[in-house]
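Quick note —
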Amino acid sequence: MERNNNMVCDMETGICGPAGDDLGTMEFIDLSAPKKTIDLYYVTDPICSHCWALEPVLRKFVHQYGHYFNMHTLMGGLLEKWGDDPVDTANGISGPSDVAGHWREVGEHSRMPIDGTVWYDNPISSSFIPSRVYKVIQGNHPELANTFLRRAREELFAFNKNIAQDDVLIDIVNQVGLDGEAIVKQSKLPEADTKLHEDFQLVRQLGVRGFPTIVMMNEEQKGVRIVGARTLEDYSNALQQLLPAEKIKPKQLSGLEQLIQQEKLLFSREIEEYYSIEKSEFDVFLQKKLPQDTYTVSEILGEKYIQLT
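Predicted structure written out below.
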């Protein structure tokens, strides 16, 4: 009969029970989260209207499933400059004024407010300009890069600011707690342009042509490419395909007060998506979830947004 040695204590190893291969004296383990084996590449551009429309879904996806992947935000280079030739003949865009109507359609469809009159009054000369600022912040302060991108999009789409202008960019960078003048000055150096074109090269390698595009890759460099602004289910299903050996589980979402403290400003559409509520439930939901006199509700282009007071 085979002897059961589970109760044997080894004097040399100091282990009671079967040691197996665990003979090292010390081993660091982490049981809090699964190993991140997926790389997620988010290809975007500061002036991409459909990227702005994707914000509610992308935020929820990252918050619920971000423990499964490493996220990399890449600049795609949507508009280098305006010239004599049409920029996008397929969509009837020959000059800046042609963009405004398209933007309004995206805003009305997504309910992420887009003004668009900036294209008539003070058109953006190039999306490369704010993209280079993004790359400088990403290189030196990576934890603030996407915060800058969010603030820039708020100013552009909802509040109609030209984010290719130095004064606007300086103010936005200052808002995220950095030295705006220094960052914008650094973005004009050749190194910033080099970093931006490194993004463009990787975007081409990923086979990406339109924005937004999300590419998820596993350790075997096999993956899924999702083009356009899609649903939460589309992204979670794609992630599950890349992790067939386990059932992916979403993390519990944070409370509204914590979320707004982190985000600073949220539009009603974003809160509705995050907490799976209807537009008609928005006001009552705020009253239940936030203490009175701690927030303000404003409205722009027919959509509400909240900020903490």
